[in-house]
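User: My instructor asked us to take a sequence, write out its structure as tokens, and then describe one feature of it. I'm not sure where to start. Here is the sequence I was given:
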Amino acid sequence: MTPERARVLRLVFVCALLVLTGSVHARESKALYGVFGPSSFSPQGKTVLVGWNTEEGKSRLASSAYKTDFFQLAHNFQPQANPLYCGVASSVIVLNALRLSRNVVPSQKSLEVVVPENLGGGRRPYPAYSQLTLLGERTEAVKHRDVIELKNTGAEGGEIDPGLTLAQLKGILEAYDTCVDLHYADADSEAAVAAFREHLKSVLADSVRFLLVNFNGSTLGASTHGHISPVAAYDQKTDSVLLLDVAGYFNPWYWAPVAHLYGAMHTLDGDHYRGYLIVQDRPALH
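Assistant: Let's start with the prediction itself. The structure tokens for your sequence are:
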């Protein structure tokens, strides 16, 4: 074989390999969204998550007696703006659900539009909380934005700790004048699951409190690991809750069994177990 022919054959082989690899990645990417895997809490690898827009998912929402929060959260839902913003997105959703309908959210100055004089002049306000403006001066004492966004990796001795823990999320929300109860899922017992279930039923039936969960999605069969999202409804018949998953590029909203979700919260995030927050406005802001 001549050197020239060998070079051509190598080139053809490399091109074929690239095409094959690309097609495999394309198939994997296409199959990833909305595909739930088996839960590690289920025997025989059973899939337990149910998409909210399936016939079964719709039936659960229709029959649920604990879905007051759904109608407030769904209207204000937004997927996370980047892979590190599950806590930020969840906070914005809840803050807008608490305050937007009461017209008490200040305009976000950096998001206002300046109108040219020939079109009347002035500024167009943006009176809603946004993922683009949530982190700032008032939240820096909780955790620096650069650390949350993994932008400090070049700083000597800089802390590498992206995202938000449950306690840090509590601090972010309290910086916005909310009252937050933190519950770690540190007990592995039926009594702990029962207490979580009672909190779900109580919070989801009223219109002034909201519940955010911090859980390991992969243990449920979702395409996330450590993750934060709002809970919107509870179906007593199937003992499952509707999670408005903010990782919109991975998962649709879905129903998860309460016991399985608690198990996904009973996983370590650093030195603490994950868990949930119950959020409401301070009395003066109601």
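For the description part of your assignment, you could build on this observation: The CA atoms of residues 107 and 127 lie 4 Å apart. Try explaining in your own words what that tells you about the chain.
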